[in-house]
């Protein structure tokens, strides 16, 4: 990369960073994206691929709706087929109380312009004929969407590159450089680059990058295990989200599978995790069986990896470029068992690959979309809490607007950074 000066530098080439670059480039700004590993190497290539509006915290709905519109544009503009489809995601339930919650949520969501509806048990059967068991009904949103995450992020990065954005891989951003309130650029492992504004879309690493600015960003990470099957005649035409398993039809004819609405996800204890744990108590109490708490190597590895940012020892960067968290075999086995039980699959369901990713979670499971208070030229998009693939393009657009004009066209008052200072305990409000 030619080390020079840009209007905006973005740290992190996940779906949010690439989306921000896409928007800024269309507005005629000179943009560089710095990525410590490879495009989409962390969450953005590892997720389940749901572009879901339904069941969200109502405060996220405007963002989810906008994201869908942008996904349609992205899928039309990129050069490859990213497996984007927007004809509905279904969450069936056999629990009458949960169905009632879904019904109440759908009424409120309708006021925000979302056309989710509760469907009857007969409609569930007609929609997913292979589903075995007695279901009370389900929540269905006809324009919820999905795409292949690894293809999508890569294709968007290729698109912005072709339009003149510099996407610099294997380039650790070490420090954001400021002079008084102003941003002057970023010190990277390849040298200094000048930029008057910086967007931080660094996933689970955001708090480390912002540590010198002493902001309160209570970001924990959860390890989520997923798998995909070999292609087989699974009979699913749409993604489905059940309490114990999710399944999404893949472009290659297989399914991506993983834990359902009830989890479980892994919380690997680290010193940082312990420090932040009290703030996550309300979330834990809401779904006590949804999180498995593990004490293991992460306790030592996590602080060691995170300290790699602070030094100048480039040999330590390889440990943080593209982390490969271990998937939990027991979770995948449970998902496979749930699929066999619920869909009657036999030996034809064969696992082709398992993987895991770490998601950046806030206590209220809402994102942070804000400037740093002392440095308005630093924009932070963080804490996407497992929703950021679907919402990614809208979050990227909000980041771009904040960086360019200091304001956003979508509401963001609930996504402010200072909410963590104003209130110690915050709770998530989603229905799924
Ligand atoms: C297993 C799993 C399943 C999920 N399923 C879904 C789903 O179905 N639907 C949904 O909407 N969301 C889902 N999510 C969440 C979603 O994937 C994320 O919210 C979203 O991808 C976050 O995008 P991002 O661009 O903010 O972060 P990331 O994709 O994590 O990208 C951040 C990037 O920043 C880079 N970086 C960090 N620090 C630096 C630095 N100092 N210098 C340079 N680069 C740096 C990293 O290398 C990384 O590539 C899931 C996540 C996981 C892990």
Automatic annotation (TrEMBL):
<keyword id="KW-0812">Transmembrane</keyword>
<dbReference type="GO" id="GO:0005886">
    <property type="term" value="C:plasma membrane"/>
</dbReference>
<keyword id="KW-1133">Transmembrane helix</keyword>
<keyword id="KW-0472">Membrane</keyword>
<dbReference type="GO" id="GO:0005737">
    <property type="term" value="C:cytoplasm"/>
</dbReference>
<dbReference type="InterPro" id="IPR036188">
    <property type="entry name" value="FAD/NAD-bd_sf"/>
</dbReference>
<dbReference type="Pfam" id="PF01266">
    <property type="entry name" value="DAO"/>
</dbReference>
<feature type="transmembrane region" description="Helical">
    <location>
        <begin position="6"/>
        <end position="24"/>
    </location>
</feature>
<feature type="domain" description="FAD dependent oxidoreductase">
    <location>
        <begin position="7"/>
        <end position="402"/>
    </location>
</feature>
<dbReference type="GO" id="GO:0055130">
    <property type="term" value="P:D-alanine catabolic process"/>
</dbReference>
<dbReference type="GO" id="GO:0008718">
    <property type="term" value="F:D-amino-acid dehydrogenase activity"/>
</dbReference>
<dbReference type="InterPro" id="IPR006076">
    <property type="entry name" value="FAD-dep_OxRdtase"/>
</dbReference>
<protein>
    <submittedName>
        <fullName>Glycine/D-amino acid oxidase-like deaminating enzyme</fullName>
    </submittedName>
</protein>
<keyword id="KW-0560">Oxidoreductase</keyword>
<comment type="similarity">
    <text>Belongs to the DadA oxidoreductase family.</text>
</comment>
């Amino acid at each position: 990369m030619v080390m020079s000066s840009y209007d905006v530098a973005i740290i992190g080439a996940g779906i949010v960073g690439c989306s921000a670059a896409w928007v800024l480039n269309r507005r005629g700004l000179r943009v560089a994206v710095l990525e410590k590993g490879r495009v989409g190497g962390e969450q953005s290539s590892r997720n389940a691929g749901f572009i879901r509006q339904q069941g969200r915290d109502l405060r996220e709905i405007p963002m989810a709706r906008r994201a869908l519109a942008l996904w349609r544009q992205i899928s039309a503009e990129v050069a490859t087929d990213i497996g984007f489809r927007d004809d509905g995601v279904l969450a069936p339930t056999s629990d009458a109380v949960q169905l009632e919650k879904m019904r109440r949520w759908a009424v409120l969501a309708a006021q925000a312009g979302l056309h989710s509806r509760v469907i009857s048990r007969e409609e569930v059967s007609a929609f997913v004929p292979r589903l075995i068991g007695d279901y009370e009904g389900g929540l269905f949103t006809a324009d919820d969407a999905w795409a292949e995450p690894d293809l999508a992020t890569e294709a968007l990065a290729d698109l912005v590159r072709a339009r003149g954005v510099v996407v610099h891989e294997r380039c650790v951003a070490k420090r954001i450089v400021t002079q008084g309130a102003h941003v002057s650029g970023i010190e990277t492992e390849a040298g200094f680059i000048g930029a008057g504004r910086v967007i931080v879309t660094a996933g689970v690493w955001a708090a480390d990058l912002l540590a010198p600015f002493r902001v309160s960003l209570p970001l924990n990470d959860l390890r989520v295990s997923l798998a995909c099957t070999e292609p087989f005649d699974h009979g699913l035409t749409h993604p489905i989200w059940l309490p114990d398993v999710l399944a999404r039809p893949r472009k290659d004819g297989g399914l991506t599978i993983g834990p359902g609405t009830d989890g479980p996800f892994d919380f690997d204890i680290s010193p940082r995790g312990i420090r932040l744990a009290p703030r996550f108590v309300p979330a834990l109490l809401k779904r006590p069986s949804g999180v498995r708490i593990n004490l293991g190597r992460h306790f030592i590895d996590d602080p060691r990896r995170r300290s790699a940012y602070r030094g100048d020892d480039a040999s330590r960067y390889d440990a943080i470029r593209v982390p490969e968290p271990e998937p939990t075999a027991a979770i995948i086995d449970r998902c496979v068992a749930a699929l066999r039980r619920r869909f009657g699959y036999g030996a034809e369901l064969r696992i082709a690959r398992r993987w895991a990713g770490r998601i950046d979670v806030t206590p209220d499971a809402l994102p942070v979309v804000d400037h740093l208070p002392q440095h308005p030229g630093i924009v932070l998009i963080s804490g996407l809490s497992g929703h950021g693939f679907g919402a990614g393009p809208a979050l990227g657009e909000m980041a771009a607007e904040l960086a360019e004009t200091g304001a956003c066209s979508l509401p963001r008052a609930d996504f402010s950074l200072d909410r963590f200072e104003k209130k110690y305990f915050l709770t998530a409000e989603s229905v799924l």
